[in-house]
Amino acid sequence: MRGAWTVGIVALGAALGPAGQAAAEDQNPWAVIEQLELAGYTVNVDRIGNAPIEQCVVTEVRNPQQVTQPVTVVDRNKHGIDVDTVDVVVRQSISVTLDCTG
Prior knowledge:
Layout: H1 2-16, H2 18-25, H3 29-38, E1 42-48, E2 57-77, E3 80-99
Parallel strand pairs: 1-3
Antiparallel strand pairs: 2-3
Helix pairs in contact: 1-2
């Protein structure tokens, strides 16, 4: 289970690191927002200017926030009962800044 979390965190770091941000700047803002939403984020959009979003440029992806809650997991098996507590992500948000000045 920890391996899956580690892979997810590494992938998120790659997506939000400097190279990932540069890649986001080259994409349609709708595509960047959709990718983040598919990853489970609530996306907060800040924009400068009033051009349609299709004409905007992503200038920044920042401030990923996660709210977790501990959950107790009970596993009954042939060896007895195994009780673990794991943190479950209840909500996560991220901010995307757009330059829509044209």
